[in-house]
Specification:
The chain is an all-alpha fold and about 350 residues long. The protein has 14 helices and two strands; from the N terminus they run αααααααααααββααα. It has a two-stranded antiparallel ribbon with strand order 1-2.
Length: about 350
Amino acid sequence: MLLTLTPPWTFNLTCDMNSLVWLWGILLAGFSMFYICTYSKINLWAKGFLLWAFVLCFLSKAPYISFTMYWSLIAGAIYYVLCTQVEDREPFYKAIQAIFFLVVLLLVMQLFGKDTLLNFNMKTPCILGTIGNRMIFGSFVMCMAPFLLRNSWLNLIPLWLMAFASQSSGPVLSVACGTMVFAWHRFKKERVAISLACVGILIVLAATQNEVQTLTTFGRGPVWKRTVELSVKNPLGYGGSTYKLLFPLYSQDLDSTKGAGEWEYDNTRGKGLAWRRAHNAVAQILFEYGFPGLVLAIGFFLTLLWRSRKDISMLSGLVMVAANMITAFPERSTNMVLLLLTALAFCERKDDAIRSL
């Protein structure tokens, strides 16, 4: 709750390479990984990814960054294991629903120019909800979807409105995919009409917003292509958390980055647009963890989707999350990652009584 209600803020994790505390932290993370892999009951795909990520730290192109990042990976894994042990999940669902109501209220006040809390009565809000970026706001809402749909399918209505309010195509694509999955199981008579309506909305959006040209020419398309090309050259991966440092150096010749001036990041300088994230979870996992890591990550997610096949609310919410991860990076945002881990952990160990639809 604290993370989901936190407005935009910046912090830095500074470590000393010569510090014994840093070294002990890495060794403790490695010990924790083997303990989780040996004694926890989470699925083998997740255990394999944790093991591979630790081994890859030694092979990383920037090992200090990868080793430091591994702390947070283990912290997330411990949280995930704890969530699988939760018996009473209703407090989670109720808390997310209350947060969603608050975000909806904030968004309404902001869209009408009446927000004197976060936007200080500006007619054009620069903050949506509690998030300082439209695209990230859309991702944040999609991360709440697995819990919201479990509460009531009527939450689909504000989810659609908030996706459009984000003015980002990614959230609209996400909620459309989730709606089609939900409708195909819940509204059997109307499912074809609802699916065609969702597809029509996506086509109109792509045509009116020039999404195809933006994607293929100056947007994410060239970045994704270069990410895959670099990954093929180093199939084992460049190391966890190295994308933000290495990709800008390897992509200064991209047309989509030219004319953006110069950048400086972590004592590294370059020209063009510094793409610090791939805006595609699959591509970035491939770059950082290589083909072995990507296979393990996909296997982990598909396993959880299969376990959720009878819980249509959770399944539809996870489809929204998956679609959003194709165009954004919710797994890299601090205020979303625990939401994702909680939802996935609930799929790992299903409720004894799944709410009927």
